[in-house]
Amino acid sequence: MKLQNPTAARAPITPAGLLFLAITSVGWGFNWPVTKYLLSELPPLTLRGVTGVIGACLLAALALLRRQSLKVDRALWPRLMLAALLNVTGWMVLMGLALLWLPASEAALIAYTMPVWASMLAWPVLGERPTVLRTIALVMAFAGLAAIMGGNGITASAEKLPGIIMALGGAIGFALGTVLAKKYPLQMAPIPAAAWQIGLGCFPIAIVGLLIETTHVAAISPLGWWLLFYSTVIQFCIAYVAWFAALARLPASVAAIGTMAVPVIGVVASAVALHEPLGPGQIAALIFTLAGVVLATRS
């Protein structure tokens, strides 16, 4: 079985890839205020771990219903474990904890400096030399995010510093996972690949959370149960499958820059649902960020 696709790093931009990327951005974007709210009713590790394990089981069941094999070739296990660690475990733990110190909008914006790190890593690792348009797109999108952060009054205060460090750590880890997924692709169908990565990544989080945290299921509100459904089915099942499908169809740098739509959606959704700040300056910055994303998809 051939495990490495030598053309993976030079994947063309396809309409299907952009559609999957859009589904990912919407699913993950709305999940930021959803998770922030759920943290008021559930502890972070239990929340992220248990919903992930349930989501992985649902994906595995869906794969079987579609007659897709869940069997993993022995040679794929090391890269599968690494992908689960970087794209799921590290991301879920660090971002879940970051939300304890940061508003959802600020955590989302810091997290999605990820395309900067992915673009930096894609050149030496994948040979994806940045084009002029792609570089302009990255600068536009990142400048828009920086303006939003400034508009929200984000500061590296002592109180916020742990959250900022965790969000940056999660962003860099996810960027590395994105680049390595192109360097060493998992030649599996998207649904089984997502089921294994989410399951392997979230299982240890769930175990640790259940051992060290106290969870009061009876205290979960009716709204909380609906949001748990969203976090489990939409964020884990649909958005993660769409992400792996997009990554298989797009260059790593384009996929990474495209995810900058996630904090745009997250900031707007957090403003509406959680009443976090969103003024004219932030709106202008959001438009600038989206313009960078559109330019990236055309590069």
Compact summary:
This protein has 299 residues and is an all-alpha fold. The chain has 12 helices and no strands.
Based on the model shown, name its key terms.
disordered N terminus; globular; 299 residues; AA-Vitamin_Transporters
Question: How would you describe what is shown here?
Answer:
The protein has 299 residues and is an all-alpha fold. It is 74% helix and 0% strand. It has helices at 15-38, 44-65, 77-98, 104-111, 114-126, 132-151, 161-183, 190-212, 222-249, 252-258, 261-274, 280-297. The longest helix has 28 residues, at 222-249.
Task: Outline the fold blueprint.
Elements: H1 15-38, H2 44-65, H3 77-98, H4 104-111, H5 114-126, H6 132-151, H7 161-183, H8 190-212, H9 222-249, H10 252-258, H11 261-274, H12 280-297
Helix pairs in contact: 1-4, 1-9, 1-11, 2-3, 2-8, 2-9, 3-7, 3-8, 4-7, 4-11, 5-7, 5-10, 6-12, 8-9, 10-12
Q: Kindly name the structural category.
A: mainly alpha
Helix content: over 70%
Low-confidence region ranges: 1-10
Radius of gyration: 18 Å
Give the topology string: H per helix, E per strand: HHHHHHHHHHHH
- Global geometry: globular
